[in-house]
Amino acid sequence: MFSRKKKIDEKLDSLTEVLEKSNLKQLSLMLGDKKQIFWRNFLVGIARGIGTAIGFTILGTIVIYSLQYVVKLNIPVIGKYISEIVQIVQENERKK
């Protein structure tokens, strides 16, 4: 009986320690403040949007440089296909 109580006490102590490390008190205080939740979510949304824009810019740049490199290699099938796409784009720009 005594060992069972000791095991329960040890488990309660470890559970208490985990809850203290997880900052549950700060989380509950934050959930109560609607203004803080709004501003935090607003700033997170702006940061995600900026990060997405930067990521697509970098990825697009890498793709464009890679395609230019493929055209310079003058691979018969791929190079011809890409050069046709470039010509179509240039013709559309002239029409404007």
What does this protein structure show overall?
The chain is mainly alpha-helical and 96 residues long. It has helices spanning 2-21, 24-32, 34-73, 76-95.
Radius of gyration, CA atoms, in whole angstroms: 30 Å
Shape: elongated
Order of helices and strands: HHHH
Number of helices: 4
Structure in a nutshell:
This protein is an all-alpha fold. It has 4 helices and no strands. α3 (34-73) packs across α4 (76-95).
Features:
96 residues, mainly alpha, 4 helices, 93% helix
Secondary-structure blueprint of this entry?
Blueprint: H1 2-21, H2 24-32, H3 34-73, H4 76-95
Helix pairs in contact: 3-4
